[in-house]
Amino acid sequence: MSARPEYAPALPPAPAPAAAAELLGRIRADRNAERWAPAFERDWAQALEYARHSYSLAPLHDVVHAWHVRLTAAPAVDAFLASDRDDTDGTALEDLFGPRR
Fold this sequence. Notes:
The protein is mostly helical. It is built from four helices and no strands. Helix 1 packs antiparallel against helix 2, helix 1 (19-29) runs parallel beside helix 3 and helix 2 runs antiparallel to helix 3. The chain is globular, with a radius of gyration of 16 Å. 8% of the residues are buried.
């Protein structure tokens, strides 16, 4: 018998210990680094403070995951914006990832 219910979704794998540093390096190498690096550092600091109080690494993993997705999607977003297509029916990032902490 397992303590975890069968219907519970599997958790994503935890990022590597150096994932945040590697991600920050990728962010700093991007053309949007001027805006993105401070935003990542702010998100990381907030998640770190929350993790200190909750004794959980989940907030840190969430930040790494969210920023990894943002960096992966950036070229597609740039291509879409360059195509001058109508984006009025878009979805807010907060609707996909939830509110920022």
